[in-house]
Specification:
The longest helix has 24 residues. The protein is an alpha/beta fold and 478 residues long. The strands form six sheets. Strands 3-2-4-5-6-7 form a six-stranded parallel sheet, with helices on both faces. The N terminus is likely disordered. It has 14 helices and 21 strands. The chain folds into three domains: 155 residues, Methylthiotransferase, N-terminal domain (Rossmann fold, 3-Layer(aba) Sandwich), CATH 3.40.50.12160; 172 residues, pyruvate-formate lyase- activating enzyme (Alpha-Beta Horseshoe); 56 residues, Beta Barrel (OB fold (Dihydrolipoamide Acetyltransferase, E2P)), CATH 2.40.50.140. The protein binds 5'-deoxyadenosine and iron/sulfur cluster.
Length: 478
């Protein structure tokens, strides 16, 4: 057996903070003959929390489990292995997971052979692993974001030695290619183009949980998108914590995100989206590629976080309110009509009323058509967790409420500009609220509900927009 089970590999935040100049390793996933049969007659259940990177990781885990002959369970009760794939971005995301782990204890008592695994960003945190070791004995396997490819080894060890497996790496991370995927959707696919983040915004745990910024080889990304297109996929969303930094780690190659968009446009895939971007890495080449490439959708998620220059500085964001708005103006000049959304944090330590007013002012000037808004959540190990925070929770909540009012107005205005127009909609399924209605997304990422035949699910159809609500559009199929 490969693993020394007598030794746990626990995460270490100070190691996770380190960044070196060494070249990124590109490895290949392989599975051996023993692993291929371990899951015969057994079922798996994966519960994923958090961002698209986690969704994509969950699909990789499912792909690996299928290669091991496991099949998907209809619910957690019939599973032989349960993976809780976690998010660490804010405290409430973590609290939810502790509740789930607590609840699973009963399943484990009823079925001692059940394997319960914890993966994802929480697994990369020292305090979480210590708590699991001390209190949550129902968890059999803990693995992090850097070693999903070793899942078969961990399952083998846990099944046969009945030992707990705790293996979380904190080094900067390599890139593993050839990973199998069992995708949740038949027409839309996540495609990782890079991993990790080197920005170290002071509030954010991600650079610690996901390691250094490292890009997948362009040939591998292009191959994956070509295959998806050949297999009937219509839309890909390119994933990275900061896609605008794609290619910066290539040693002898001048090839960045804009180049990748142009190459992917030639694959024949109908729709390309990407998330997420950092304003200070967004360059002209990317904006021009969006303008020139028919398949790259006119939608941009550009997190701003705050409109106050002093807060932005303490967040370590490397731009000001003015330079952000300038970049947005340039983007809108180059790609007229592009829809822009953002992320904003309120209640960052020391945020004054004036700072918050600056944020509201920026939001009004930026014409965002949507935003994810959050109250600052201190993350142990990050610099901002140590900043003095003397703002009352009630004040933070009131700011969030006020901000959301302005943002919601932006949603509505953004939707109204499509009234009376006929737009291509990728039909995703039946509307959540009405069985007789189809739901899909426009190139600008607007949700449209309209009456139509279920056979259209998965295809792109022209829809005339007849009504604009805050959260969605109503349309008629042409
Ligand atoms: N507290 C609140 N929001 C956060 N985000 C990241 N870290 C924190 C935190 N500690 C938000 C940012 C980021 C989004 C994914 O989550 O707005 O863009
Ligand atoms: Fe976190 Fe900032 Fe990196 Fe985004 S860019 S993942 S907010 S550190």
């Amino acid at each position: 057996m490969d693993i020394d089970v007598s030794k746990y590999f626990k995460p270490n935040l100070s190691k996770a903070r380190r960044r070196s100049k060494s070249e990124v390793q590109h490895d290949n996933f392989e599975i051996n003959e023993i692993h291929k049969n371990l899951g015969h007659g057994k079922k798996y259940w994966i519960q994923t929390y958090g961002c698209q990177a986690n969704e994509a990781d969950g699909e990789t885990m499912a792909g690996i489990l299928k290669m091991m002959s496991f099949s998907p369970a209809a619910n957690e009760n019939e599973a032989s292995i349960i993976i809780i794939n976690t998010c660490a971005i804010r405290e409430n995301a973590e609290n939810r997971v502790w509740g789930v782990i607590g609840r699973l204890k009963k399943l484990k008592i009823d079925n001692p052979d059940l394997l319960i695994c914890l993966s994802g960003c929480m697994a990369q945190e020292e305090n979480v692993v210590n708590k699991i070791l001390k209190t949550y004995h129902q968890v059999d396997i803990v693995f992090g974001t850097h070693n999903i490819h070793k899942l078969p080894d961990y399952i083998q060890t846990a099944m046969f030695s009945k030992e707990r497996v705790i293996e979380v790496y904190s080094e900067e991370g390599n890139v593993v290619e050839n990973l199998p995927k069992f995708r949740n959707h038949k027409k839309k696919a996540w495609v990782n183009i890079m991993f990790g983040c080197d920005e170290f915004c002071t509030y954010c745990i991600v650079p610690y949980t996901r390691g250094r910024e490292r890009s997948r080889l362009k040939e591998e990304v292009i191959k994956e998108v070509k295959e998806l297109n050949n297999n009937g996929y219509v839309e890909v969303t390119l994933l990275g914590q900061n896609v605008n930094a794609y290619g910066k780690d290539f040693k002898n190659l001048d090839y960045t995100f804009g180049d990748l968009l142009r190459d992917l446009d030639k694959t024949g895939i109908k729709r390309i989206r990407f998330t997420t971007s950092h304003p200070h890495d967004l360059d002209l080449k990317t904006m021009e590629a969006i303008r020139d490439c028919h398949s790259v959708m006119p939608f941009f998620h550009l997190p701003v976080q705050s409109g106050s220059n002093s807060i932005l500085k303490r967040m370590n964001r490397h731009y000001t309110k003015e330079t952000y708005l300038e970049k947005l103006k340039q983007l809108r000049e180059i790609v007229p009509g592009i829809s822009v959304t953002t992320d904003i944090i309120v209640g960052f330590p020391g945020e004054t009323d004036e700072d918050f007013m600056e944020t509201l002012d920026l939001v009004r000037k930026a014409n965002f058509e949507g935003a994810f808004t959050f109250i600052f959540s201190p993350r142990e190990g990050t610099p901002a967790a140590k900043f003095k925070d003397d703002i009352e929770l009630e004040v933070k909540k009131a700011r969030l409420y006020k901000l959301n009012q302005v943002i919601n107005d932006g949603y509505l205005q953004g939707n109204k500009r499509f009234l009376g127009k006929t737009i291509d909609v990728l039909v995703e399924g039946i509307s959540k609220n009405n069985n007789n209605t189809l739901a899909g997304y426009t190139p600008h990422q607007k949700l449209v509900n309209f009456r139509g035949d279920k056979e259209k699910i998965g295809s792109i159809v022209p829809v005339k927009i007849i009504e604009a609500k805050t959260w969605f559009l109503m349309g008629e199929m042409i």
